[in-house]
Amino acid sequence: MKEILTKHGERRELAKLFNVSEVTVRNALKGRTRSELSRRIRGAAIQRGGVEIL
User: How far apart are CA 29 and CA 23, in angstroms?
Assistant: First the structure.
């Protein structure tokens, strides 16, 4: 799974939005987890300007 890069401070905002820890967001954006929550976090990150990289 590809990693998603976000702008500075976006991980914290995503953590607040989904009421999870920043570690959970980091793992989702790095593609380490494949749960439904991770998919939702990844989708929100892309909608908010995140970019997938190899």
Answer: 10
47 CB-contact burial (10 Å; exposed 0-12 / middle 13-18 / buried 19+): exposed
Give pLDDT tens digits for 11-49: 999 999 999 999 999 999 999 999 999 999 999 999 999
Collapsing DSSP to helix, strand or coil, 2 comes out as: coil
Cα distance between residue 49 and residue 32, in whole Å: 20
The alpha carbons of the chain give a radius of gyration, in whole angstroms, of 10
Class of domain 3-53: mainly alpha
Q: Structural domain boundaries of the chain?
A: 3-53
